Write a sequence for this structure.
C-alpha cells in the first residue's frame, strides 16, 4: 500500500521527528496551523479512528499518553487534539493521526 504516513513511520520518508517508539511516531506538521503543531501516528496502518480493532485499543491509549507527555515536553499549557475522520471530516491522509495544536488561543467551533 502506498501510504505516506506508513512510510514516515517506517523511516523511509524523512520527517521532523519529535518522538519515536516501537508503536508510534510523532513529527511536526508540514503545514503548521499553530505555533506548535505536530502529528502522532501509529506505525501500523489504521485508516482512521472509525476503523480500529479491539486488539488495537491499548495502542490508542498509548498514543494518548504520548500526546500528553509530548505536550508537556513542548511546554503547552492549553492545547487541542484533533483527529479528522473521512473526507467530510476533513481527513486528507487516510492513516490515523492525531493533530496536537498549541501555542495560541483556540477558537470554537473549529469550522
Ligand atoms: P488531515 O487533513 O487531518 O488528514 O491532516 C493531514 C496533515 O498531514 C495535514 O495537516 C498536512 O499538513 C500533514 N502532512 C501531510 N504530509 C506530511 C508530511 N510528509 N510531513 C508532515 N506533515 C504532513
Amino acid at each position: 500500500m502506498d501510504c505516506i504516513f506508513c512510510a514516515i513511520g517506517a523511516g523511509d520518508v524523512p520527517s521532523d521527528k519529535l518522538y519515536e517508539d516501537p508503536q508510534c511516531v510523532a513529527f511536526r506538521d508540514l503545514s503548521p496551523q499553530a505555533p506548535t503543531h505536530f502529528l502522532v501516528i501509529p506505525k501500523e496502518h489504521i485508516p482512521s479512528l472509525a476503523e480500529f480493532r479491539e486488539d488495537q485499543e491499548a495502542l490508542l491509549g498509548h498514543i494518548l499518553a504520548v500526546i500528553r507527555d509530548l505536550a508537556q515536553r513542548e511546554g503547552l499549557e492549553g492545547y487541542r487534539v484533533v483527529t479528522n475522520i473521512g473526507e467530510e471530516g476533513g481527513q486528507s491522509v487516510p492513516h490515523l493521526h492525531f493533530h496536537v495544536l498549541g501555542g495560541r488561543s483556540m477558537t470554537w467551533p473549529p469550522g
User: Anything to note?
Assistant: The chain has a mean pLDDT of 97. The first helix runs from residue 4 to 10. Strands lie at 17-20, 24-28, 36-42, 79-82, 98-102. The helical segments are 4-10, 57-73.
